[in-house]
Amino acid sequence: MCATYTGRVAMGATSSTARLDRITALGFSVAEARLALEHTNGDVDRAILLLLAKRRQEAAAEQGLANRVNAILRRQRP
């Protein structure tokens, strides 16, 4: 029987520390990494994509808020 390498490692084949280290190396907290891994059943690649999507969503929301505040301030100028 010949196994095909897919580039993915089974959850049990990689230690939880190694999975956390890979995610925290990208700037995410251990708590964020743990939650993302829990939501993705230990799939590091999916966890990273989930966290990056969350980060993009938060950045867009902050930008939207900043734009609204700036618009209000512009209208209040004498």
* Pattern of helices and strands: HHH
Spatial shape: rod-shaped
* Main beta sheet: none
Number of E-type strands = 0
Beta-strand proportion: under 5%
Poorly predicted runs of 5 or more residues: 1-10
Overall mean confidence score, pLDDT: 84
Radius of gyration based on Cα positions: 19 Å
Q: Helices and strands: which structural class?
A: mainly alpha
Portion of residues in helices? 55-70%
Report the total helices.
Answer: 3
What gap, in angstroms, lies between the N and C termini? 79 Å
Could you describe the 3D structure shown?
The protein has helices at residues 16-24, 30-39, 44-76. With 78 residues, it is mainly α. Helix 1 packs across helix 2 (30-39) and helix 2 (30-39) packs across helix 3. The longest helix has 33 residues, at 44-76. The protein is rod-shaped, with a radius of gyration of 19 Å. The termini are far apart. The model is unreliable at 1-10 (pLDDT under 50).
